[in-house]
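Continuing the batch. This is chain 6 of the set; chains 1 through 5 are on the previous pages. Same settings as before, nothing changed between runs. Recording input and output for traceability.
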Amino acid sequence: MAEIPDQDGSNGLSDLDRFDHAILRNLSTDGRMSVAELARTIGLSKSPTQARLRRLEADGFITGYTALLNPVRMGLAHVAFVEVRLSDTREAALQAFNAAVRKIPEIEQCHMLAGGYDYLLKIRTQDMPSYRAVLADKLSLLPHVANTSTYVVMEAVKEGAY
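Output for chain 6:
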């Protein structure tokens, strides 16, 4: 689980006990779990479980609930990771790149990195021809892109969090 800094700069994880961690773990795999079922699973009664859940939401450990979609069933079985190097890494260039990335629906994830390249993108498309179209018509036209390297996923071994 990623550390979420508090206002004082700490991550707040020291304030979480085994029940809080159990709540987070269970909800990360089944966000539709009822409070009663969650309480039974973690070994607390419903009221304290509900109070802990509200606190975890208020403290920013739980930021929302969403449906997990099956990308294969939606015709998006092709996954590629793309390393991107920018020709300009000043703040204005980074902001322009970030804003443009957010507008491309095929980009499932975008991470700025330190190292040999500037960004790592996770792209989902129907197949290789549709990926090539995204690369040619969208990725290569992003602001300040100097070059890209593509890695095609053969199999997802583990996905998910916590």
